[in-house]
Amino acid sequence: MANEKTEEGLKRVIGVQGLVLSIINGIIGAGIFALPGIIGVQLGAFAIFSYIVCAVMLAALLLCYSEIGSRVTSSGGSYAYVDAAFGSLPGYIINWLYFFGWGVLGSAALLNVVADSIAGLFPVFGNHIIRGIFFFILLGAIASINVLGAKQGIGFIKGITIIKLLPLLAIIIFGISKININNLHWDYTPSLKSFGSTTLTLFFAFAGFETCLGVSGEFKNPNRTVPLGIMLGGMVVLIVYLLLQIVTQGILGADIAMFKTAPLAAVAQKIVGPLGATIILVVTAFSCFGTVSADVMATPRALFAGANEGLFPKFLGRVHTKFATPYLSIIIYSSLIFLLSISGGFEKLANLATAAVLPVYLAVVLATVKFRIQKQDNAEGSFRAPGGWFTPFIGSAAVLWLFSSQENIVILSIIVFMSITCLFYFGTKLYKKRMKI
């Protein structure tokens, strides 16, 4: 039944369509509006091969998430998968890495992108007080919608996703006829180092597909919904990204370097005039807002799941008696985003957020491997990723490659964060034991 309640007290109301649109919304954020310029400047028309390599790495991760997500159907997404495979300590570390290292910092940074984009049209949004009020209203609205129910939250995200996709699809449809085929020929082959570093940049634009899996305890028929939704969502994003790259490269050609920071706005302006650039500016803000909305809907479920396991304060595990949502987790999580968003200066923190999600990916791949070794991959109705052991091997190799490419200070910061999390875990356990909680 669509509204059946789980053991957690939540309702299974999200189907394949909702998951697909949530994945698209979670991935397509601010990056795509600058990505074609960055990739085009580095690789030119050779960029298509970077997308192919990226697609292989992404597919391996998507398949691992699809496989384990069809077996572990409780709330929490990545946290729930790792906790089920390796126990409370690894799950605790992953939960902190994800909800704070990736979720809170990433969403706070995106909110500032929203304000910066709007400030291009209305300079008053450059004022810190106005920005603070603006952030409070936005997060208050998002939190309220998600407290009312997962059905309302997913409905809101569906609408945002469609709105953000329409201008991008318009650029593709109306831009194809303006492509100069000569701009799609490459005269040289980039170095392996240049190709590799650019592929890394491209891969990071695909991060976020796992965010919506935080509501895994509210999926209808998760054995079918998770693998089908993940693969369809990932394919749509890949196709949209690739077509936008081709159209942008084909229209701008060698001039793409002149519009590196806003290539899609330049393309839109060539298609429909100055109004096109303004539209893209607004869509950039709206796109970031949509990504934050998806995060506020999904990530609080990781806090909720952790609270149910006794890892976080018990009040975070409370479910609203009327709306059947983890309302306190949603409110607390939104409040954390607000506090960090008004402090500003998030460029370095955003880089840390991106690096923080990589250990999460690796842990989920290893969890998939463990379930296979334990022969739990034969669970009735579960999904088995094709490719045998090659799939998790590619997934783990991709993550290790991406993580090793980070600056030493970033890697050290993530290691220190994980170490402090371990100490906090054992400190909490010791406190509970002494207090006999």
Q: Which characteristics define this entry?
A:
437 residues; mainly alpha; Amino acid/polyamine transporter I; 16 helices
Short description:
With 437 residues, the chain is mainly α.
Query: Could you give the distance between the termini?
Result: 37 Å
Q: Structural class, please?
A: mainly alpha
- Roughly what is the average pLDDT, rounded to an integer? 80
Domain count, please report it: 1
In DSSP terms, counting alpha (H) and pi (I) runs of 4 or more, how many helices?
16
Main sheet: strands, sense, barrel? none
What is the H/E string? HHHHHHHHHHHHHHHH
Low-pLDDT runs of 5+ residues are none
**Class, according to the CATH hierarchy?**
Mainly Alpha
Apparent shape? globular
If you compute it from the alpha carbons, what radius of gyration comes out, rounded to the nearest whole angstrom? 21 Å
CATH topology: Amino acid/polyamine transporter I
What does this entry look like structurally?
α1 packs across α11, α6 crosses α7 and α12 crosses α13. It is globular and about 70 Å long. The protein has one domain: Amino acid/polyamine transporter I (Up-down Bundle), CATH 1.20.1740. Helix content is 70%, strand content 0%. It contains 16 helices and no strands.
Secondary structure layout:
Layout: H1 16-27, H2 35-43, H3 47-69, H4 78-86, H5 88-119, H6 128-148, H7 150-175, H8 192-204, H9 222-252, H10 263-272, H11 274-298, H12 300-308, H13 327-341, H14 347-373, H15 390-404, H16 408-435
